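Can't paste images in this forum, so I'm doing it all in text. The chain is below; anyone willing to post the predicted structure tokens underneath?
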Amino acid sequence: MASIFTRIVNGELPCHKVAEINDYLAFLDIRPLTYGHTLVIPKKEVDYIFDLDDEVYLGLQMFAKMVAKALKIVTGQRIGVCVIGLEVPHAHIHLIPFTQMEQMNFSNPKLSLSQEELSNLARKIQDEVLKAS
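Text version of the structure:
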């Protein structure tokens, strides 16, 4: 069965997309740790990030870097990077704006943002990604 991320890639489920190129997609986490928490994925479903072939792995990292730069401009914060790999069986990178180490703790309560807030944030990040390309 396809992962939730593959269903997003296939257009079966909605997302607040911030960037997309041929092989990669970045979208806002709907249960974010912090304002701007973004997920970056390869479109091809592979469960474990270190099982990605080298080209896809390096491409994912470079795509994440591009998105992180835009996210930093929008949030005004450093962007933390986290790969856990247990919650969804589809390789992904968490980009998390933060000012304190404690904000990177996945046990913290998640923010509750409206669809409108998520849409507006996604649009701001998209604009910054476009400026950089």
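The chain has three helices and five strands. The beta strands are 17-21, 24-28, 38-42, 78-82, 93-98.
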